Amino acid sequence: MNAQTERLILTGGAGAIEALRDGPDSTPRGVVVIAHPHPLFGGTMDNKVVQTLARAFVQCGYAAVRFNFRGVGQSAGEHDAGRAEAEDMLAVVDQVAPEGPIALAGFSFGAFVASHALAALWPSGRVQQAVLVGTAASRFEVAPVPAEAHDCTLVIHGEADDTVPLASVMDWARPQILPVTVVPGGGHFFHGQLPLLKNLVTRHLRAFD
User: Fold this and answer.
1) Cα separation of 201 and 130, whole Å?
2) Domain 6-206 homologous superfamily, CATH
């Protein structure tokens, strides 16, 4: 993302996990781990939405770690429809933030994976923030957000998303009474609206300063 980006090789259930870490100028307030879109459809940690999420968190004082799911880039293993990917996300958290405050974020398939990581990690009391963008609720069994985590969870979706219809995200959110922030006219990849996406995330994060 910039000259200060640190390349990491971490370890998951299938072997190596390729990751990138960006940090703020001062001591980080926590570490966010960000999951990318579907690897079988070109998703990588270099996705523009994933990079936008990383920039937003870094701007708000977090160290941002994004990683390639198994079978992508230098990450070992094969795609596992989200099951092993969630385990890998937890393994990344364990290695880059073994203690202290954490945040979780994901885009599309990555939001589905992050939802399960959130469900697993919320009881630890370490999760400060969660951001789910373009949540793939029409394609996968997205985990419910723990009721106590609603205030610190931001769900963003494009009104005109033709990959994951907004209606499917509302169907997932409605039983939880979980608010969804809708970007008017926004598509799945938020073309032309990444600055707005970044601003929505930074505004959410700064509300907890």
Assistant:
1) 10
2) Alpha/Beta hydrolase fold, catalytic domain (3.40.50.1820)
pLDDT in tens, the chain (209 residues): 555 799 999 999 999 999 999 999 999 999 999 999 999 999 999 999 999 999 999 999 999 999 999 999 999 999 999 999 999 999 999 999 999 999 999 999 999 999 999 999 999 999 999 999 999 999 999 999 999 999 999 999 999 999 999 999 999 999 999 999 999 999 999 999 999 999 999 999 999 88
70 neighbors 142 (Cβ within 8 angstroms): no
Domain ranges in the chain?
6-206
Are the CB atoms for 103 and 29 separated by under 8 Å?
no
The reply to whether the predicted model has a pTM over 0.90 is: yes
